[in-house]
Amino acid sequence: MRILICEDSALLREGLVRVLEDAGHAVVAALPDASDLDVAVARTAPDLCILDVRLPPTFTDEGIRAALALRAADPALPVLVLSQYVEERYASELITGQSAAFGYLLKDRVADIRDFLASIERIAAGATVLDPEVVAQLLTRRSRDERMARLTERERSVLALIAEGKSNQAIAQTLFVSEASVEKHITSLFQKLDLEQDEHGNRRVLAALVHLDHGGSGTAPQNGALR
User: Fold this and answer.
1) Contacts of 210 (CB under 8 A, 6+ apart)
2) Whole-angstrom Cα distance, residue 53 to residue 12?
Protein backbone atom coordinates (compact mmCIF):
# COMPACT_ATOMS: atom_id res chain seq x y z
CA MET A 1 0.00 0.00 0.00
CA ARG A 2 1.20 3.53 -0.83
CA ILE A 3 0.92 5.70 2.27
CA LEU A 4 1.44 9.43 2.87
CA ILE A 5 2.23 10.64 6.41
CA CYS A 6 1.75 14.18 7.73
CA GLU A 7 3.10 14.38 11.30
CA ASP A 8 5.09 17.19 12.91
CA SER A 9 6.88 15.04 15.50
CA ALA A 10 10.04 13.77 13.83
CA LEU A 11 10.26 10.85 16.23
CA LEU A 12 6.71 9.64 15.61
CA ARG A 13 6.95 10.38 11.89
CA GLU A 14 10.08 8.27 11.48
CA GLY A 15 8.63 5.60 13.74
CA LEU A 16 5.55 5.35 11.52
CA VAL A 17 7.72 5.14 8.42
CA ARG A 18 9.72 2.28 9.95
CA VAL A 19 6.65 0.36 11.13
CA LEU A 20 4.85 0.74 7.81
CA GLU A 21 7.84 -0.14 5.65
CA ASP A 22 8.67 -3.15 7.82
CA ALA A 23 5.10 -4.30 7.20
CA GLY A 24 5.63 -4.11 3.45
CA HIS A 25 4.01 -0.74 2.74
CA ALA A 26 5.57 2.07 0.71
CA VAL A 27 5.70 5.48 2.40
CA VAL A 28 5.48 7.85 -0.58
CA ALA A 29 5.82 11.05 1.49
CA ALA A 30 6.48 11.98 5.12
CA LEU A 31 5.59 15.62 5.72
CA PRO A 32 6.18 17.74 8.87
CA ASP A 33 3.18 20.00 8.15
CA ALA A 34 0.23 20.40 5.78
CA SER A 35 1.60 23.30 3.73
CA ASP A 36 2.45 21.08 0.73
CA LEU A 37 -0.09 18.36 1.43
CA ASP A 38 -2.26 18.97 -1.64
CA VAL A 39 0.78 18.96 -3.94
CA ALA A 40 2.19 15.82 -2.33
CA VAL A 41 -1.12 13.97 -2.63
CA ALA A 42 -1.44 14.94 -6.29
CA ARG A 43 2.16 13.93 -7.02
CA THR A 44 2.29 10.63 -5.14
CA ALA A 45 -1.31 9.37 -5.46
CA PRO A 46 -1.33 7.59 -2.07
CA ASP A 47 -3.71 4.78 -1.19
CA LEU A 48 -4.01 6.13 2.36
CA CYS A 49 -3.17 9.39 4.16
CA ILE A 50 -2.22 9.53 7.85
CA LEU A 51 -2.48 12.98 9.44
CA ASP A 52 -1.85 14.36 12.90
CA VAL A 53 -4.69 16.56 14.17
CA ARG A 54 -2.44 19.35 15.45
CA LEU A 55 0.17 20.60 13.02
CA PRO A 56 2.29 23.75 12.57
CA PRO A 57 2.08 26.66 12.63
CA THR A 58 -0.53 26.98 15.43
CA PHE A 59 -0.73 23.33 16.53
CA THR A 60 -4.49 23.60 16.93
CA ASP A 61 -6.56 22.07 14.13
CA GLU A 62 -4.50 22.33 10.93
CA GLY A 63 -4.33 18.56 10.50
CA ILE A 64 -7.99 17.87 11.02
CA ARG A 65 -8.96 20.72 8.70
CA ALA A 66 -6.59 19.24 6.13
CA ALA A 67 -8.32 15.88 6.56
CA LEU A 68 -11.70 17.52 5.95
CA ALA A 69 -10.29 19.17 2.81
CA LEU A 70 -8.89 15.88 1.53
CA ARG A 71 -12.21 14.13 2.03
CA ALA A 72 -14.05 16.97 0.32
CA ALA A 73 -11.70 16.88 -2.67
CA ASP A 74 -11.65 13.09 -2.96
CA PRO A 75 -14.23 11.22 -0.84
CA ALA A 76 -12.76 7.91 -1.99
CA LEU A 77 -9.32 8.64 -0.50
CA PRO A 78 -8.86 6.71 2.77
CA VAL A 79 -7.79 8.98 5.63
CA LEU A 80 -6.54 8.13 9.11
CA VAL A 81 -6.41 10.90 11.71
CA LEU A 82 -4.11 10.52 14.70
CA SER A 83 -4.59 12.64 17.79
CA GLN A 84 -3.29 12.96 21.32
CA TYR A 85 -6.80 13.84 22.46
CA VAL A 86 -10.34 13.57 21.12
CA GLU A 87 -11.20 16.71 19.15
CA GLU A 88 -15.00 16.62 19.40
CA ARG A 89 -15.43 19.82 17.43
CA TYR A 90 -14.51 18.13 14.13
CA ALA A 91 -14.78 14.43 14.94
CA SER A 92 -18.49 14.24 14.24
CA GLU A 93 -18.12 16.05 10.91
CA LEU A 94 -15.35 13.71 9.80
CA ILE A 95 -17.17 10.59 10.96
CA THR A 96 -20.49 11.51 9.38
CA GLY A 97 -19.02 12.32 5.98
CA GLN A 98 -20.42 10.74 2.85
CA SER A 99 -17.46 8.41 2.47
CA ALA A 100 -16.29 5.62 4.72
CA ALA A 101 -12.58 4.71 4.46
CA PHE A 102 -11.83 6.78 7.53
CA GLY A 103 -10.09 6.29 10.86
CA TYR A 104 -9.76 8.33 14.02
CA LEU A 105 -7.26 6.86 16.48
CA LEU A 106 -5.51 8.19 19.54
CA LYS A 107 -1.72 8.06 19.29
CA ASP A 108 -1.51 5.68 22.22
CA ARG A 109 -3.01 3.00 19.97
CA VAL A 110 -0.04 3.18 17.61
CA ALA A 111 2.00 1.44 20.28
CA ASP A 112 0.01 -1.72 19.56
CA ILE A 113 1.62 -2.26 16.16
CA ARG A 114 -0.41 -5.31 15.19
CA ASP A 115 -3.70 -3.55 15.92
CA PHE A 116 -2.50 -0.36 14.22
CA LEU A 117 -1.55 -2.20 11.03
CA ALA A 118 -4.85 -4.07 11.06
CA SER A 119 -6.70 -0.75 11.38
CA ILE A 120 -4.84 0.63 8.38
CA GLU A 121 -5.81 -2.37 6.27
CA ARG A 122 -9.46 -2.00 7.26
CA ILE A 123 -9.52 1.73 6.49
CA ALA A 124 -7.87 1.18 3.11
CA ALA A 125 -10.53 -1.44 2.38
CA GLY A 126 -13.26 1.15 2.97
CA ALA A 127 -14.10 0.71 6.65
CA THR A 128 -14.53 3.32 9.36
CA VAL A 129 -12.27 2.61 12.34
CA LEU A 130 -12.75 4.64 15.52
CA ASP A 131 -10.77 4.64 18.72
CA PRO A 132 -12.90 3.40 21.65
CA GLU A 133 -12.23 6.66 23.49
CA VAL A 134 -13.54 8.66 20.53
CA VAL A 135 -16.74 6.63 20.56
CA ALA A 136 -17.11 7.03 24.32
CA GLN A 137 -16.77 10.82 24.21
CA LEU A 138 -19.13 11.22 21.27
CA LEU A 139 -21.72 9.08 23.02
CA THR A 140 -21.33 11.25 26.12
CA ARG A 141 -21.87 14.31 23.97
CA ARG A 142 -24.97 12.77 22.44
CA SER A 143 -26.27 12.05 25.93
CA ARG A 144 -25.87 15.72 26.79
CA ASP A 145 -27.72 16.66 23.61
CA GLU A 146 -30.60 14.39 24.57
CA ARG A 147 -30.89 16.16 27.92
CA MET A 148 -31.14 19.50 26.15
CA ALA A 149 -33.82 18.07 23.86
CA ARG A 150 -36.04 17.56 26.92
CA LEU A 151 -36.34 21.29 27.49
CA THR A 152 -39.22 23.38 26.22
CA GLU A 153 -38.49 26.53 24.23
CA ARG A 154 -39.31 28.64 27.29
CA GLU A 155 -36.92 26.59 29.45
CA ARG A 156 -34.19 27.02 26.84
CA SER A 157 -34.70 30.78 27.00
CA VAL A 158 -34.44 30.72 30.80
CA LEU A 159 -31.32 28.55 30.58
CA ALA A 160 -29.71 30.97 28.10
CA LEU A 161 -30.26 33.81 30.57
CA ILE A 162 -28.86 31.73 33.45
CA ALA A 163 -25.75 31.16 31.30
CA GLU A 164 -25.46 34.95 30.97
CA GLY A 165 -25.38 35.16 34.77
CA LYS A 166 -28.75 36.85 35.20
CA SER A 167 -30.69 36.63 38.48
CA ASN A 168 -34.24 35.31 38.69
CA GLN A 169 -35.50 38.88 38.89
CA ALA A 170 -33.56 39.90 35.78
CA ILE A 171 -34.80 36.82 33.92
CA ALA A 172 -38.39 37.66 34.87
CA GLN A 173 -37.97 41.23 33.62
CA THR A 174 -36.41 40.07 30.36
CA LEU A 175 -39.14 37.52 29.65
CA PHE A 176 -42.01 39.65 31.00
CA VAL A 177 -43.09 36.97 33.47
CA SER A 178 -43.29 36.72 37.25
CA GLU A 179 -40.37 35.57 39.40
CA ALA A 180 -42.55 32.68 40.57
CA SER A 181 -42.91 31.56 36.95
CA VAL A 182 -39.15 31.80 36.45
CA GLU A 183 -38.57 29.69 39.57
CA LYS A 184 -40.91 27.01 38.23
CA HIS A 185 -39.10 26.95 34.88
CA ILE A 186 -35.73 26.72 36.63
CA THR A 187 -36.88 23.86 38.84
CA SER A 188 -38.20 22.04 35.79
CA LEU A 189 -35.05 22.49 33.70
CA PHE A 190 -32.86 21.39 36.62
CA GLN A 191 -34.87 18.17 36.79
CA LYS A 192 -34.72 17.61 33.03
CA LEU A 193 -30.95 18.19 33.00
CA ASP A 194 -30.53 15.71 35.86
CA LEU A 195 -28.96 18.37 38.08
CA GLU A 196 -29.46 17.55 41.74
CA GLN A 197 -29.38 20.13 44.52
CA ASP A 198 -26.04 20.24 46.34
CA GLU A 199 -24.82 21.97 49.47
CA HIS A 200 -22.93 24.58 47.48
CA GLY A 201 -25.86 25.60 45.27
CA ASN A 202 -23.91 24.99 42.06
CA ARG A 203 -26.82 23.90 39.89
CA ARG A 204 -27.02 27.24 38.09
CA VAL A 205 -23.33 26.97 37.19
CA LEU A 206 -23.73 23.36 36.04
CA ALA A 207 -26.81 24.27 34.00
CA ALA A 208 -24.88 27.09 32.35
CA LEU A 209 -22.07 24.66 31.48
CA VAL A 210 -24.56 22.28 29.86
CA HIS A 211 -25.94 25.16 27.84
CA LEU A 212 -22.49 26.32 26.70
CA ASP A 213 -21.34 22.75 26.01
CA HIS A 214 -24.32 22.40 23.69
CA GLY A 215 -23.11 25.36 21.66
CA GLY A 216 -25.04 28.04 23.52
CA SER A 217 -28.22 27.29 21.55
CA GLY A 218 -31.43 28.94 22.58
CA THR A 219 -31.62 32.69 23.15
CA ALA A 220 -34.07 34.61 25.25
CA PRO A 221 -36.82 36.47 23.38
CA GLN A 222 -36.83 40.19 23.94
CA ASN A 223 -40.43 40.91 22.96
CA GLY A 224 -42.36 39.00 25.58
CA ALA A 225 -43.13 36.05 23.31
CA LEU A 226 -43.73 32.56 24.69
CA ARG A 227 -45.40 33.69 27.90
Assistant:
1) 144, 147, 148, 159, 193, 195
2) 13
CA distance 197 to 203: 6
Whether 168 has a pLDDT exceeding 50, the answer reads: yes
Nearest-angstrom CA–CA distance, 179 and 40: 63
Measure CA 107 to chain center: 16
Q: What is the 3-state secondary structure (H, E, C) of the chain?
A: CEEEEECCCHHHHHHHHHHHHHCCCEEEEEECCCCCHHHHHHHHCCCEEEEECCCCCCCCCHHHHHHHHHHHHCCCCCEEEEECCCCHHHHHHHHCCCCCCEEEEEHHHHHCHHHHHHHHHHHHCCCEEECHHHHHHHHHHHHHHHHHHCCCHHHHHHHHHHHCCCCHHHHHHHHCCCHHHHHHHHHHHHHHCCCCCCCCCCHHHHHHHHHHHCCCCCCCCCCCCCC
* Identity at 220, one-letter amino acid code: A
Q: What is the pLDDT of residues 77-109, one digit of tens each?
A: 999 999 887 766 666 667 666 566 888 898 888
